[in-house]
Amino acid sequence: MTPCAYLPRTLCLALALTTASLAVHGADWTDALRQHIERIDKATPGQLGVYIKRLDNGETLNYQADRPWYLGSSAKLPIAIAVLQESEAGKLKLSQQVTLQDTDKIDGSGNVVWQKSGTSYGVEALLKRMLMESDNTAANMLVRTIGEDALNHRARFYLGPQGFNRITTFTQVRQDVYGALHPDARKLPNMDLVRLAAVPMGPKRVDALVRTLQVDKSALRVKTMEEAYARYYATQVNSAPLSAYGGMLERLVTGQLVSPPNLQRLFTDLKYETYDAYRLEAGLPRTVRFIHKTGTQLGRACHMGVINPQDGGRAAVIVATCAEDLDEHRDAGRAFEQIGRAITQTLLSDAAKK
Is the pTM of this model over 0.70? Predict the structure, then answer.
């Protein structure tokens, strides 16, 4: 017997039209959102990559998401997952103390770099600093604790072998970039790298490197920081496809990567309880929950996250976005906010918009 058997004909017709409308809406959100993203990409310098997946029905939008994108600090989430997996495997304890070494110190957000070598931090405290404050020195300490080989063995499992090369320390990032200018830069002490970062990006940074290395400027292999970074990005180290990163986020929120207590720990460190109105989040409704991690480097920016990750991810929306060849702050921030607004308009429910 049909559902309309006991309903008035007009009510039955209204029900049918409503059901059809919802079906069309469900089918059309990817087309509508893709059109928004194409317009945003066209109006933004450089290129955008976007991966979005609804976990309630599996519908996916893939916009240039299958090629590698430089992750920047977005690589800290795979590091955190690997650390928690090592803990669950009994190879370390979250209460374990890690001693700060000179070779851990590197520029970036957070203040661990300015602490005295020999200062001790618990693994759990370092995770929080790495994710909430995006502290590069804390990240270095965690990578040293579990080892790069163990990190990449685990990361390759949840990021996949296609398009993923390797995650390194943030010291290695600096050494590789400056090493593109002159090979001796790979041997610089960490605090020299920190001092170089205090010099404005561009010709002044190049001149500071020349002075630090005590070499003639004619000995440089490339002449600008932009060229050095371009060579570094071409190695595709610390890069991954957005579809692979999105797959990692999906496995994370559906409980396939870490235990429930550690998942809740990550939710907290990924700002589940806060609203910063930054990048993607600035375009999303305040009423939705959003766990997320950003990444920023010269001409590169990313924002990765999960909308409504709670309840086993049943109603979650995976979002992974990156941009390249643009101002990594102003242009990227504006583009990501617009993508957030487009997601709100085309995908999130009317209730979520209020």
Answer: yes
DSSP state of 116: P
Would you kindly state where each structural domain of the chain is located, as residue ranges?
30-73+239-353, 169-236
| Residue carrying structure tokens 């949840």 | 158
Name the amino acid, one letter, at 296: T
Integer Cα distance of 285 and 180 in angstroms: 43
Question: Which CATH superfamily includes the segment(s) 30-73+239-353?
Answer: DD-peptidase/beta-lactamase superfamily (3.40.710.10)
- pLDDT tens for the chain, 354 residues: list them: 333 443 344 333 333 332 333 333 445 899 999 999 999 999 999 999 999 999 999 999 999 999 999 999 999 999 999 999 999 999 999 999 999 999 999 999 999 999 999 999 999 999 999 999 999 999 999 999 999 999 999 999 999 888 899 999 999 999 999 999 999 999 999 999 999 999 999 999 999 999 999 999 999 999 999 999 999 999 999 999 999 999 999 999 999 999 999 999 999 999 999 999 999 999 999 999 999 999 999 999 999 999 999 999 999 999 999 999 999 999 999 999 999 999 999 999 643 443
